[in-house]
């Protein structure tokens, strides 16, 4: 038996794994004891990874050969790679010639490796010439990105996982790490057990497993996080718990923010958020007066039409109290996907450019043009995820190339997404798994290599770059994502009569191009190499001469003048509020043992033992009032669509709340459009992240 070190492909904790394999077959997996994210531990999902690569799964669930549909209603037929590549290049060239490069959109994924991201970024912007490239990370972390940039000057989580052990007070907001980031939660549990007087505050409308551990659970009304943060800051200022020296030396904009929160007394915040006023005072005191306070946050803040405001309001609390830039302190966004961070670093999104450059700055475009040696880049921001599918539904995007993601399940407001896919002249789906909801819309299905078969790097939530290594050959004729992009790019360039613009022959060569784009930037990794990662293990950026575990320790931030910014954004209610006809606030969340659309985790029967079928949850009091019983089929109806699901009663929800796990697609919910039939595409004006965490719905007997 042989062993290969790699990383887990599920969440942003980025645990190291040791893959056991024999004769080209993965036989086992265990935690890598040397990886600083997990020190040998794995959660249920990670420890079952080898079961997603059995011969049975490869035979029945993997996409193993390129396929083509003659018409949308036809069964896909196997074709050669040569034929698929040539026909796709010809059709993209024809659409480009007839309607312009902007008629083509590329939608990629936080599951891709950094090298894949770099390849697709060049394919879209440099080869096809379209600005419309975005990632499913838009649904996940874009509010955290913009929050960091507006407040601290750069998209850089300032903390390390070791801060979980060092903090005296931890505030978890809009996150359930007990289920979504289990290995970090184990570290939090151990830290609490080891530290007398440790404080844990959890802000969440649901009483989750994480909230069960808390000293104080602020079970706020969904969508009212900004009001709560303003109330907490009011209490901090009123009691004199601010850090005046830090505010004067290292920040700008405190007076304007003070003016904004003047009216947000804890009493008012308590009324808006549905909380006890005393709890707000207590939380403010613990957070402000503990020697070190860390916040951990995720989709509850990000997936919101006020996502950026929620992020900046929380960062305001850190800046006002000086809880940043020291051990155990700082605002720490937990990334959902394994390489959302790498996608941000390589700039493979409509609102980003390589090396944390900004599409709004002409000088940044000029630098990318020089780095890539491509003079005619489409130097403007493209459509973000929701905008891209809306454009396709309108007909202005005519071809979509979708990579390693399943928008016909994961995007909000499925009616629009499916109209978009139906209307496109050409849909290319590049995937490892054969039976995703998006597959039935694809004209071409391109088999992609996946975990255990790929080589490259990923970056986890604490800015740590890890190597991903192949243990076995790709299933069937599957190929690495970057290679698929490169081969079709070469045919497009040839068709346009120019030399290849995406010519790198190995993933390491792509990584070196990415590294060059970081020189002199906040994420500079010019001191790193694959050889160093292989010799010394995973490293945190920036890395010029050494790794950087913690940012802003000198009180200087990544803004032009070195000062952080207090961002004064008023509280805005969710985009659609409950009404007499749609009285429930529906949230979406994760299950402990499933991952996203289940294309990988759904191949392991044992992972359904924890929760085996979809359901909508509501508080028993509301069910009793409506004469609804546990297990009864109910219709969940929003302004966009409806679902029929069994009802589960759950005392852990707020009275007017409802909840459906995000993972369930068509195949589990019968002939319906998955749970996103009812969610909304309204998005944050700054981050463009959609409000997946809040939809007004009715729940009635089916
Ligand atoms: Fe994988 Fe995340 Fe579990 Fe670690 S915590 S094993 S990265 S799913």
TrEMBL record:
<keyword id="KW-0411">Iron-sulfur</keyword>
<keyword id="KW-0560">Oxidoreductase</keyword>
<dbReference type="GO" id="GO:1990204">
    <property type="term" value="C:oxidoreductase complex"/>
</dbReference>
<keyword id="KW-0534">Nitrate assimilation</keyword>
<protein>
    <submittedName>
        <fullName>Nitrate reductase</fullName>
    </submittedName>
</protein>
<dbReference type="GO" id="GO:0042128">
    <property type="term" value="P:nitrate assimilation"/>
</dbReference>
<keyword id="KW-0004">4Fe-4S</keyword>
<keyword id="KW-0479">Metal-binding</keyword>
<dbReference type="GO" id="GO:0046872">
    <property type="term" value="F:metal ion binding"/>
</dbReference>
<keyword id="KW-0500">Molybdenum</keyword>
<keyword id="KW-0408">Iron</keyword>
<comment type="similarity">
    <text>Belongs to the prokaryotic molybdopterin-containing oxidoreductase family. NasA/NapA/NarB subfamily.</text>
</comment>
<feature type="domain" description="4Fe-4S Mo/W bis-MGD-type">
    <location>
        <begin position="1"/>
        <end position="57"/>
    </location>
</feature>
<dbReference type="GO" id="GO:0016491">
    <property type="term" value="F:oxidoreductase activity"/>
</dbReference>
<dbReference type="GO" id="GO:0045333">
    <property type="term" value="P:cellular respiration"/>
</dbReference>
<dbReference type="GO" id="GO:0016020">
    <property type="term" value="C:membrane"/>
</dbReference>
<dbReference type="GO" id="GO:0043546">
    <property type="term" value="F:molybdopterin cofactor binding"/>
</dbReference>
<dbReference type="GO" id="GO:0051539">
    <property type="term" value="F:4 iron, 4 sulfur cluster binding"/>
</dbReference>
């Amino acid at each position: 038996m042989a062993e290969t070190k790699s990383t887990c492909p599920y969440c942003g904790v980025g645990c190291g794994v040791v893959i056991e394999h024999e004769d080209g077959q993965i036989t086992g997996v265990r935690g890598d004891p040397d990886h600083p994210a997990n020190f040998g531990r794995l959660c249920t999902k990670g420890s079952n990874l080898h079961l997603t690569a059995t011969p049975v799964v490869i035979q029945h669930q993997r996409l193993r050969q390129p396929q083509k549909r003659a018409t949308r209603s036809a069964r896909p037929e196997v074709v050669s790679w040569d034929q698929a590549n040539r026909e796709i290049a010809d059709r993209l060239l024809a659409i480009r010639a007839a309607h312009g490069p902007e008629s083509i959109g590329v939608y990629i994924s936080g599951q891709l490796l950094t090298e894949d991201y770099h390849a697709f970024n060049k394919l879209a912007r440099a080869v096809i010439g379209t600005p419309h490239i975005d990632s499913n990370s838009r649904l996940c972390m874009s509010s955290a990105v913009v929050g960091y940039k507006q407040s601290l000057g750069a998209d850089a989580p300032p903390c390390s996982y070791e801060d979980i052990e060092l903090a005296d007070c931890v505030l978890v907001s809009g996150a359930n790490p007990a289920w979504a980031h289990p290995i970090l939660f184990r570290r939090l549990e151990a830290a609490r057990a080891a530290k007398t007087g440790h404080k844990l505050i959890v802000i969440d409308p649901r009483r989750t497993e994480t909230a069960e551990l808390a000293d104080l659970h602020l079970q706020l009304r969904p969508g009212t996080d900004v009001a709560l943060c303003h109330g907490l800051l009011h209490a901090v200022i009123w009691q004199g718990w601010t850090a005046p020296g830090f505010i004067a030396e290292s920040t700008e904009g405190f007076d304007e923010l003070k003016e904004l929160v003047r009216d947000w007394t804890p009493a008012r915040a308590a009324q808006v958020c549905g909380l006890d006023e005393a709890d707000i005072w207590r939380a403010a005191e613990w957070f402000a007066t503990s020697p070190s306070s860390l916040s951990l946050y995720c989709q509850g803040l990000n997936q919101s039409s006020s996502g950026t405001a929620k992020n900046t309001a929380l960062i305001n609390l850190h800046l006002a109290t000086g809880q940043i830039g020291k051990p155990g302190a700082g605002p720490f966004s937990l990334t959902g996907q394994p390489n959302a961070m790498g996608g941000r670093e390589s700039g493979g999104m409509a609102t980003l450019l390589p090396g944390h450059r900004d599409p709004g700055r002409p000088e940044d475009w000029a630098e990318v043009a020089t780095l890539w040696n491509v003079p005619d880049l489409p130097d403007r921001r493209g459509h973000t995820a929701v905008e891209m599918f809306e454009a396709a539904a309108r007909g202005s995007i005519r071809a979509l190339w979708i990579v390693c993601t399943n928008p016909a399940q994961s995007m909000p407001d499925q009616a629009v997404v499916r109209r978009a896919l139906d209307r496109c002249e050409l849909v290319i789906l590049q995937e490892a798994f054969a039976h995703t909801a998006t597959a039935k819309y694809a004209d071409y299905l391109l088999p992609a290599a996946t975990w255990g078969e790929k080589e490259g790097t990923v970056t986890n939530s604490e800015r740590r770059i890890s190597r991903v290594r192949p243990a076995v050959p790709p299933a069937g004729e599957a190929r690495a994502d970057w290679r698929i992009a490169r081969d079709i790019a070469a045919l497009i360039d040839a068709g346009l009569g120019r030399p290849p613009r995406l010519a790198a022959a190995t993933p390491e060569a792509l990584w070196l191009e990415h590294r060059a784009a970081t020189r002199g930037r906040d994420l500079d990794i010019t001191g790193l190499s694959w050889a160093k990662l292989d010799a010394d293990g995973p490293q945190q950026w920036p890395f010029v001469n050494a790794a950087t575990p913690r940012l802003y320790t000198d009180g200087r931030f990544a803004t032009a003048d070195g000062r952080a910014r207090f961002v004064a954004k008023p509280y805005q209610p969710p985009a659609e509020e409950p009404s007499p006809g749609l009285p429930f606030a529906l949230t979406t969340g994760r299950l402990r043992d499933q991952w996203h659309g289940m294309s990988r985790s759904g191949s392991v029967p044992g992972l359904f033992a924890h929760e085996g079928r979809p359901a909508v949850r509501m508080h028993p009091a509301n069910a009793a009032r409506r004469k609804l019983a546990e297990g009864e089929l109910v219709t969940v109806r929003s302004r966009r669509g409806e679902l029929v699901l069994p009802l589960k009663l759950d005392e852990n929800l707020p009275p007017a709340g409802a909840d459906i796990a995000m993972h369930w697609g068509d195949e589990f919910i019968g002939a319906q459009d998955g749970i996103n039939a009812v969610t909304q595409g309204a998005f944050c004006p700054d981050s463009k992240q959609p409000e997946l965490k809040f939809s007004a719905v009715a729940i009635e007997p089916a």
